[in-house]
Amino acid sequence: MRALRPIVAPILALIAYLSVAAATPLWNTALAAAFPGETRILYPDATPLGLVVQHLELVLISSAISITVGLALGIFITRRAGVAFHDVVSDLTNLGQTFPPVAVFTLAVPLLGFGLRPTVVALALYGILPVLRNTVAGLKGVPPEVLESADGVGMRPVQRLLRVELPLAAPVIVAGIRVSVVVNVATATIGAIAGAGGFGAPIINGLVNLAPAVTLEGALLAAGLALVLDALLGGVERALTGGRPPAV
Amino acid sequence: MISIRNVSKSYEGAGAAAVRDLSFDVPAGEVVVLIGPSGCGKSTTMRMVNRLVEPDAGTITIDGRDVREYRPEQLRRHIGYAIQGVGLFPHWTVAQNVAVVPGLLGWERERVTERTAELLELVGLEPGGYGRKYPHELSGGEAQRVGVARALAADPPVLLMDEPFGAVDPLTRDRLHAEFRAIQDRLKKTVLFVTHDMDEAVTLGDRIVVMRDGMLVQQDTPERVLAYPADAFVASFVGAERALKRLSLAPVTEALDPPGLARACDCSVGSTASLREALARILELGVPAIDVHDEHGARIGTVSVESIVERFKRPLT
């Protein structure tokens, strides 16, 4: 249980964030006070908590895909069978990262239609690189004599991966996941232009209707979620490192 | 017995072969030390025994069975393996590290726990205190003891050791050597030991195999390698002090003159001392000879500078 201590505070922060988001009257009062004279205070089509649910849906689905693909690719190109693909995969994901996400959305819409799907695809593609890069760095950072020992005691390749390599690389991999998810929370706001909802919706709505309070509502919710998720994954990172010094 | 026959290995891109037509045996229950300068192919040779490296040609058998008949993982679980960097798993406790091979072999939990404690005891680490520690909490010497315990965990008949006592200070190293010899005298494992240090080879080996450029240059007992180096390379490798190293291998009883009527001097050494210790006493005291006594304190003879010189003139068998 002691190992879980680093994630207690972030979980409390997450609960606090959700409670505040659920208090719609609080938002109304606070934003009305901040923008006296404004008629449009809150985003009309969804409550703050409703926006959080929409946004989390985007982030969780796309990040789950990013993490799965990034981990799998990272493991594959560090195995003997996949070494040949190492450079190609790295180049492709680096290239993907240089492509502006707005352009990805615009290109994805004709193929996948409006709404959740093109947004999730674009965000997932965008989030692969940090996970992949850190998976490769973490696995390559496992000391060679530890790998030689794992082989020398007679572990099968899968046993070596699951019992030695991934546990030792885990803190570095989680750091990559953290970057990927936090960037994803911000990038997902662009999904609103494809009609995916989320915090982008009030931001764009406020922009179009010259209603700064509405934009601020979306921005505050987005920043809060990014901070909370960052703290949570940072806690996981520390829990994995435990009392021992990092191996890499 | 490990038997290596006409084994060759080249690495892609490397100019010369790493190992060329190498043949030698490691007799059951003996320690054979493979020695040579770095890059001579000694580690490659060792790693071919547990198939971490596959030879291009030749065969390696253990107790008559070709190592290629086993699945590599199965083979390795029955061969103890200790290496220079030790390579303890940093995220596991000492006890978990020692228990890894029994775990892979599917031993029952109680048997593993019992065996782990027994092994930590054997290498001189108190199981209660050390079992729960993590590798980063150990000193260099302690880590190497754990490495040896891990190699011995499943009681393999064969051990492969690649400079397992490499990265520690000379004092700790001497102690680890003495302990290893004591453990080996009890367990009688078949050990292939790799080092580049002639002192270590002479201390630990029952036989020494000297390698250079992937080929065998000489194989013999430590004393004969010191006394009769096969060529100028071996002679320079064993060093200019090889006669002094031989002194530490020979017990005083091999250069004993019968006890004279008079005592040689008012001093003596035990019959288990080496000629090196006897000579040191002679030099210290500035006398031509000293007495040797047995474990009961009875005088059994004398050792003199002359008798040592005579002993060195006798051909070795």
Shape of chain A: flat
Which class do the helix and strand fractions of chain B yield?
alpha/beta
Question: Helical element count of chain B?
Answer: 14
Q: What's the count of strands of chain A?
A: 0
Q: Summarize the main sheet of chain B.
A: 6 strands, mixed
Describe this protein's structure.
The complex is a heterodimer of chains A (248) and B (317). Chain A is mostly helical and 248 residues long. Chain A has a single domain, classed as MetI-like (MetI-like fold, Orthogonal Bundle). Helix content of chain A is 75%, strand content 0%. In chain A, α6 (116-140) packs across α8 (157-187). The mean pLDDT of chain A is 89. Chain B has helices at residues 42-49, 72-77, 94-98, 100-104, 109-122, 127-130, 140-152, 170-187, 198-204, 222-227, 232-238, 242-249, 275-285, 305-313; strands at 2-9, 19-26, 31-35, 57-62, 65-66, 79-83, 158-162, 190-195, 207-212, 215-220, 268-270, 289-293, 299-304. Chain B is of the alpha/beta class. At the A-B interface, α7 and α8 of A face α2 and α4 of B.
